[in-house]
Amino acid sequence: MTATSSPADAGTAPGGPPAGRRRLLGRRRVIDRGASKAFRWTATGAGALILVVLAAVAVFLVVKAVPALSASSSELVDKVSFMRNSSSLLDYVGPLVFGTVLVAVIALALAVPVAIGIALFISHYAPRRLASGLGYVVDLLAAVPSVVYGLWGALVLAPLVQPLWVWLNTFLGWIPLFGGEVSPTGRVTLTVGVVLAVMILPIITAVCREVFLQTPRLHEEAALALGATRWEMIRLTVLPFGRSGVVSAAMLGLGRALGETMAVLMIISQGFLYSFKLLVAGQQQTIAANIAAQFPEASDMGMSVLIATGLALFVITLVVNMGARAIVARRKDFSGAN
């Protein structure tokens, strides 16, 4: 008898899938290649767009600041009303840079220990349900507008902490930070530092929490098996593992504190001094708050001066964030236990 081929075998190649299925697989490969190329070019374009925007901001600041940078000191003093007490542009920008860095460092010094404690409690001490709820509450702090923090700091926190500032001045006034005549309103640099510490707390806490949770489980179990207490285990395994992550989180929080505007403007009393007195009114001012205060009534030359101060803030913030990225890039994991 002669074997007859069935219609189902007509599109079947010896040793391979049916022709229809091969065509379908071929189309899928073409689509996958096209999607892969599209995704690659989209991601590349997004990365390039960030660099373009950053360069555009830098160019804008430089171009707009050129009139102030190229003008003589006498011309600036004559044309810019808010520079009457300054002899030059550097003499005007210097105290602002000093005040900006001082307030940000105070906020960082207050926020980092608290953030590390909260992150350790959430990651290694609290029950799972409590840790989840506390994590949500901390993250919600980042969603509160800065103007709300400013109102809270000026109307609630400042009167509340003013007796504490008096106590610090009475018993620790020999320290330059707490010396001088305490402001009766409480709206001083230290109060601004406390408010900024609350504002950057969610950023630092979130990063530290995620870093601590990435500690290799075998390292923790090995420390406990050798007889270490929970705190000794954290001190010997968790904190060394997350050291660079904590530093990078602190740098990110510092970048946020450097650029804060409304909360500082609504609390601090303006001053242009190189002063470390944190409890005396009218000592320091930050760049961002000064720009917001002087912008509405600034002339063309005054606008150029303000943009020049903004250029200084841009450089400081860029350096801080580049430092944070460098620390993250150099982060070394432990020997491989996960």
From TrEMBL:
One of its GO terms (biological process) is phosphate ion transport. Residues 1-22 are annotated as: Disordered. It is a multi-pass membrane protein. This is Phosphate transport system permease protein. It comes from Cellulomonas gilvus (strain ATCC 13127 / NRRL B-14078) (Cellvibrio gilvus). One of its GO terms (molecular function) is phosphate transmembrane transporter activity. PROSITE patterns: ABC_TM1 (PS50928). Residues 97-324 form the ABC transmembrane type-1 domain. It comes from the Bacteria. GO terms for cellular component: plasma membrane. PANTHER family: PHOSPHATE TRANSPORT SYSTEM PERMEASE PROTEIN PST, PHOSPHATE TRANSPORT SYSTEM PERMEASE PROTEIN PSTC. Keywords: Cell membrane, Membrane, Phosphate transport, Transmembrane, Transmembrane helix, Transport. It is found in: Cell membrane. Part of the binding-protein-dependent transport system for phosphate; probably responsible for the translocation of the substrate across the membrane. Pfam families: BPD_transp_1.
